Amino acid sequence: MKFAAFAITALLSIAPAFAADTPVGLWKNIDDETGKPKALIRITENEGAFQGQIEKLYREPNEDQNPKCDKCDGARKDQPIIGMVILSGLKKDGEEFNGGEILDPKNGKVYKAKMHLTDAGKKLNVRGYIGMPMLGRSQVWVRQD
């Protein structure tokens, strides 16, 4: 009985350490221009590839609470932004996750993407860019779970 209690306690104390090594979870993205929260994004992992889906948008009361991606192309055109996959194809590469892409629903453009965890896994630096990483912009996302 004592061993079972010890084992459960040990497992619970190890779980946060694993969370710090992976971007899987719920993140609040912070607008790099305004400093205000924009959305909650759930990052999941499937066969080593990470993707992020919008779960909630932070909108002003006078704004459309369920906007559609009217500037998107293809299958995303005029689809609701809430529920949309905006981050996809990122794979772990050392301390970074890269090789994927990110959609900016505001302008409908898709950019190459890379990201890395900071602050013991509590923050995620997400960079969208064209061509080279130095030609882009970054946002800091804050872990919510």
Could you explain how this protein is built, in words?
- The chain is mostly beta strands and about 140 residues long.
- The protein has a single domain (about 1-145), classed as Lipocalin (Beta Barrel).
- Helices cover about 10% and strands about 45% of the residues.
- The chain has one helix and eight strands.
- The protein has one helix spanning about 1-20; strands spanning about 25-30, 35-45, 50-55, 85-95, 95-105, 110-120, 125-130, 135-145.
- The protein has an eight-stranded antiparallel barrel with strand order 1-2-3-4-5-6-7-8.
- Strand 5 (about 95-105) and strand 6 form a beta hairpin.
- It is globular and about 40 Å long.
- Mean pLDDT is about 90; it is low at about 1-20.
Compute the average pLDDT: 88
* Strand runs, count: 8
State the strand order across the main sheet: 1-2-3-4-5-6-7-8
Low-confidence stretches: 2-19
Topology as H/E string?
HEEEEEEEE
- The end-to-end distance, rounded to whole angstroms, is 31 Å
Shape: globular
The oligomerization state is: single chain
* CATH structural architecture: Beta Barrel
Which structural class is indicated by helix and strand composition?
Answer: mainly beta
CATH fold-level assignment = Lipocalin
Number of domains: 1
The largest pleated sheet is described as: 8 strands, antiparallel, barrel
Number of helices: 1
Helix content: 10-25%
